[in-house]
Amino acid sequence: MTALTLTPIEIMAGLGVLIAFASVWRAGARRARAAADKAQAGGRLLSLTGRVLFNAGLIVAVQWVLLSSRVHDGLVLTALAVPALFAAYSLTRALTVTTNDLPRRRGGRR
Fold first, then answer.
1. CB–CB of 76/84 below 8 Å?
2. What does the alpha-carbon distance between residue 89 and residue 15 come to, in Å, rounded to a whole number?
3. pTM for this predicted structure
C-alpha cells in the first residue's frame, strides 16, 4: 500500500475548497429561509382575509335574518355589509393567535 503524501500547498488548496463549499452552502440556506419567510407572511395575509370575509358574511346573514321579517329591501343588505366588515375584521384580529415573527439577525438574536 502506498502512503499518501501531500504538500502544504495541496493541503491549503483543499481547505480553501472546503471553506468555499461551506460558505456557498450557508448562503443558499439563508436564501431559502428568506424565501420561506416571505411565503409564510403572504399565506398569513390570505388566511386573515378569508377569515374576515367569512365572519363578515356570518354577521350579515344573522342581521339579514333578523331584519327580513319586517323589511324587504336590497339596500338593507348593503347597509349592513359595510359595518359587518369592520366588525368582522376587529373580531378576527382579536381572536387570532399571532406569532412573534421578527426578522432574524446574524448570530440568532432577534
1. no
2. 57
3. 0.38
